[in-house]
Amino acid sequence: MFQVAYEAASRALPAHRHPFSPKKFTQPQLVACLVLKEFLRLDYRGLAAHLADHVDLRDRIGLKTVPHFTTFQKAAQSLLASAPGRRTFDAVLDRARRDGTLKRRVPLAAVDGTGMESRHVSRYYAKRRYAGDSDPARTYAHYPKVVFVVDCKSHMILSAVPGRGPASDLVQFGRAWTQAVRRARIDTLLADADFDAERIHRAVRSHGVRTIIPPKRGRPTDKPPSGRWRRVMKQRFARLKRKYGQRWQVETVNAMLKRRLGSALRAEASDPVPRDRPPGHYP
Predict the structure, then answer these.
(1) pLDDT tens-digit profile of 121-165?
(2) What's the pTM value of the predicted model, to 2 decimals?
(3) Which of 35, 45, 89, 129 could in theory staple to 5 by disulfide, Cβ–Cβ 3.0 to 4.6 A?
(4) For bias kind Basic and acidic residues, which ranges apply (predicted)?
(5) How far is residue 61 from each of residues 7, 39, 66, 134, measured CA to CA in Å?
(6) Sign for the pseudo-dihedral over CA of 79, 106, 154, 215
(7) Are strands 185-190 and 157-165 parallel, antiparallel or unpaired?
């Protein structure tokens, strides 16, 4: 993982941002260190201490000196931004194609949104906090969220767009879909009822991609759904259920990320882009 991140960043980013930058370390080295930080769930100080203790890790990427922890913090602000993140993410997918993990043609892709935690308080604690109160106070909080498009076969993330909830997943769908269709030739897109909208069908099918989305948004009614493609889904969904069953693959990706990296973010900027995920997760 550490080595792959370094190699991908080396293909995507220049060694230094400026000709007169200090030549102590390179941008790809910093990217690899930031990825390591997330997989080990460290803070910036912990990352610097870990690298100081493990010479073998530094040797893998040719890091001669350990950067100060504030250097990692500043690198996260610049290297996890949209443009560098997209280039690094594209390089990761290119590496996956060369290795045969990901094909250029993706028969089935799925989209879904998931919420993250902005603090280290369990949902169980939040639920039990007012369990004994007869009139518990209702509190609502904003939380980070992200919409993924994934390849159902390889579980590779084709795009991931961050945002802030509570909000509909439709808000981020446009950007997530535009990035995904640029990176792969998708045959069919699977989505749950949160994405049930005629404009979603039209946007996806305008790229020659089929959609399978259950027409269940809104109140139950005996009337046919509004819109051509929503009516088509109503008529054909029973025959498409077998293929639609593969939509759970995107849920698997969400679960893997949260189990490995945790659902609580350890750092978040004032904008809705979480800063503590490996580059490319939020292109």
Answers:
(1) 666 676 776 676 666 666 667 788 899 999 999 999 999 988 887
(2) 0.80
(3) 35
(4) 273-283
(5) 9, 17, 12, 59
(6) positive
(7) unpaired
